[in-house]
Amino acid sequence: MRGAAGGEEALWLAERGWSVQAVDIAAAPLAAARERAAALGADVADRITWRQADLSAHPPAAEAFDLVCSHYVHTAHGPAALLEALASAVAPGGTLLVAAHHPDDAHHADTPGAHVSPQQAAAVLDPGRWEVLAAETATRTVDAGGHGQGHGHGHSHPMVGGSPVSVDTR
Ligand SMILES: C[S@@+](CC[C@H](N)C(=O)[O-])C[C@H]1O[C@@H](n2cnc3c(N)ncnc32)[C@H](O)[C@@H]1O
């Protein structure tokens, strides 16, 4: 699991029995996510290891994970470097799941170059090694308010919110 932040994916997976390594470049979100895990009890907390790292510069161990997922992680190095790092960590037969803001999403126009379409993401992957299961753009409506629900815009709006790419190694 990558780009831990609130730890949503790490907690979701650990609650369902996965052993998870959660990575974020920043210390504060990792600490907050670790607290949330602890509050859920040792069964969940003990399944997650937390690591502070810049994934583009320090990729996770090669071919070590059955599932690598990245939700809305945008790095200064650009999406290609991050995707290559994440893809390299997937074990043979494993799955890479990426969700990102679409470059056409006007709400993220202030960070040009940081976002990636599903087609651009899929193109980073070696077709000899990867089978693309889904590369789709979805629009979702987000509510005003909290984390992940409106990004502080203070109103509901339709958002080109996802560039999910789900791929399996051959
Ligand atoms: C929108 S948040 C992800 C939220 C998370 N998926 C969740 O649901 O809780 C994006 C996170 O990516 C992290 N991030 C950005 N660039 C990174 C990088 N190069 N390596 C690791 N984490 C990075 C940020 O610190 C931030 O916490």
UniProtKB/TrEMBL annotation:
Keywords: Methyltransferase, S-adenosyl-L-methionine, Transferase. InterPro entries: Methyltransf_25 (IPR041698), SAM-dependent_MTases_sf (IPR029063). One of its GO terms (molecular function) is methyltransferase activity. Residues 3-94 form the Methyltransferase domain. It comes from the Bacteria. One of its GO terms (biological process) is methylation. Gene3D superfamilies: Vaccinia Virus protein VP39. Residues 142-170 are annotated as: Disordered. This is 2-polyprenyl-3-methyl-5-hydroxy-6-metoxy-1, 4-benzoquinol methylase.
